[in-house]
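User: Could you go from structure to sequence for me? I need the amino acid at each position, not a summary. Structure tokens:
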């Protein structure tokens, strides 16, 4: 394990570590801090001078961020609306002001191609169409749930939302705007869904109960397995496809980062790392061979070879 020193410290938020092909991002005391992704594989363990911030964000209370449009846009939900930054010069390109009384929770941003989906505390899902960084517009807003939407995932076929009471709702993404028909609602855990990772037909979900669930979306009964992964709420989850297997990383309030392998319908724990006296706030396979862990209020990231 290596420790990478940064200029800023991650805030206490769910899944507070994101990346695209060029940059790594996290929220730090109501600013957005970012640095080059290639810094993770360099020999240097101090990148403080490479860390930058997106200016003029401090007037908003940032809720969540997500790179979109193949890394050309960074989307941020705030107390006042949704911000869209182009990532070359980090210029604000579009601001969708929210007029109604709503909040944004957890990880309720997802994107595929030009479509960007944002869920809110009223159970509404809003779609933005970003044909380019200069052409961003509101597409539609639909009622998708009757409890707060806390997480969103999507690919070309499926649109998945997780709610504050633990429901997972699966929609046909191409027809959602016209029909809003829900394929499946899985039994809830009465705990919020804090993260959804969608890889092909497989969805990996994390809950504030400490559980992870795996769904195969092609089946009529999609829930395949459930694991009581942690003794306290999961704060962050990420996954990526490695050959025919899926590697899953979870970070929890119990101070453990767990690494799982999902293979041929079975899941097994392959490593466990305890970060004593730390509050874990982000985890990510930012480089396929490096698992990166973000820690609350510490100017460092932990790098683990996988």
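Assistant: Here is the amino acid at each position, in order:
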């Amino acid at each position: 394990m290596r420790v990478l020193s940064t200029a800023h410290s991650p805030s206490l938020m769910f899944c507070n570590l994101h990346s695209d092909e060029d940059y790594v991002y996290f929220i730090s005391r109501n600013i957005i801090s970012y640095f080059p992704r290639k810094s993770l594989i360099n020999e240097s363990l101090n990148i403080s001078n490479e860390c930058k911030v997106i200016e003029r964000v401090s007037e908003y209370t940032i809720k969540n961020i997500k790179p979109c449009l193949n890394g050309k846009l960074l989307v941020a939900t705030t107390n006042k609306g949704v911000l869209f930054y182009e990532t070359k010069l980090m210029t604000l390109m579009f601001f969708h002001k929210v007029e109604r009384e709503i909040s944004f929770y957890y990880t309720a941003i997802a994107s595929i191609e030009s479509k960007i989906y944002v869920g809110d505390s009223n159970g509404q899902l809003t779609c933005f169409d970003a044909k380019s960084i200069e052409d961003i517009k509101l597409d539609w807003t639909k009622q998708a749930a009757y409890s707060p939407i806390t997480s969103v995932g999507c690919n070309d076929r499926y649109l998945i939302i997780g709610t504050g009471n633990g429901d997972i709702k699966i929609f046909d993404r191409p027809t959602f705007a016209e029909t809003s028909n829900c394929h499946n609602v899985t039994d809830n855990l009465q705990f919020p869904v804090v993260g959804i990772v969608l890889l092909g037909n497989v969805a990996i979900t994390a809950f504030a109960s400490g559980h992870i669930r795996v769904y195969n979306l092609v089946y009529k009964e999609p829930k395949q397995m459930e694991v009581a992964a942690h003794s306290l709420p999961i704060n962050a989850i990420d996954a990526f496809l490695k050959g025919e297997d899926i590697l899953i990383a979870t970070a929890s309030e119990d101070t453990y980062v767990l690494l799982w392998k999902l293979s041929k319908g079975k899941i097994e724990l392959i490593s466990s790392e305890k970060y004593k006296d730390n509050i874990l706030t982000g985890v990510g396979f930012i480089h396929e061979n490096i698992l990166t862990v973000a820690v609350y209020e510490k100017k460092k990231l932990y790098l683990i070879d996988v």
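One structural detail worth keeping in mind: The first strand starts at residue 2 and ends at 5.
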